[in-house]
Amino acid sequence: MPERTRIAAASIGVGLAVLGIKTLAWWMTGSVALLSDALESIVNVGTAVAALAAVRVAERPPDAEHPYGHDKAEFLAAVAEGVLIVLAALFILREAWHGLINPEPIRAAWAGIGVNLVAGVLNGVWATVLIRRGRRLRAPALVADGRHLWADVVTSVGVASGVVLGVLTGLTWFDPLLAGCVALYILYSGWGVLSASASSLMDESVPEHELADLRAIISDTGQGAVQAHDLRTRHAGRTVFVEFHLVVPSDMAVSDAHEICDRIETGLIDALGECSVTIHVEPEEKAKRGAIVMS
């Protein structure tokens, strides 16, 4: 089983464990804020399932119907995660409103807070694993899942602090008010996941610092050519797509031009890993200003 798939599958188990711990904390205390924290964990399980499904689809090789591969399935999963996060936030806001109208005292607060913090620590450790491994493996679904879990860690700490203040002050309305604040933060987090995923689905270019690296590689490996221009990039999951026009001397043999293209392509693949390179060769009279000049 590929490493990406193993990590995604493990996320489901971690999510179920955290959900059970947080549900226990809510059952012990009756706190609306702790209930909101537990409800978010249901979303965590759902997003982990979506991430696993997306990673399994993305692992499929290109076929006749999908000649560019299936990597964008991970971005679709990230969009689904964002939608689930937003829906969870809206549900928590409803529970917080009911709690403000009919506030109730918190039971066994200290024990419940301790149990909830255990879940927060578990989430924090696994979120770090997901983000690091996801970036190394170029798996957007895993990175999105990790960022969501980090948002959950922040809310867990905020919830625990707020419940403590509510118990110490005796203000029963403080608990549902805090749940509402948690819901707003989750809503913000969900919007961030949706925005990042939408940019990728719209074939957004790679970041500027990566573009600078690409230009340098083309310049260093393209000896014999005149210039390169009209560089375009996009990324789909772990694969980076690079396209540009390569200008060569008009009297250069096709075999020599092909050798230069192979050299550039090898340099890009060595630097980027999963990379699809398309080079259009042009004669010298097609040169443009502001192009990549060969070293």
UniProtKB/TrEMBL annotation:
The keyword Membrane applies. The chain crosses the membrane at residues 7-28, 34-55, 75-93, 108-129, 149-171, 177-194. GO terms for cellular component: plasma membrane. GO terms for biological process: intracellular zinc ion homeostasis. Residues 10-202 form the Cation efflux protein transmembrane domain. Keywords: Membrane, Transmembrane, Transmembrane helix, Transport. The keyword Transmembrane helix applies. It is a multi-pass membrane protein. Residues 207-284 form the Cation efflux protein cytoplasmic domain. GO terms for molecular function: cadmium ion transmembrane transporter activity; ferrous iron transmembrane transporter activity; zinc efflux antiporter activity. It comes from the Bacteria. It is found in: Membrane. Belongs to the cation diffusion facilitator (CDF) transporter (TC 2.A.4) family. This is Cation diffusion facilitator family transporter.
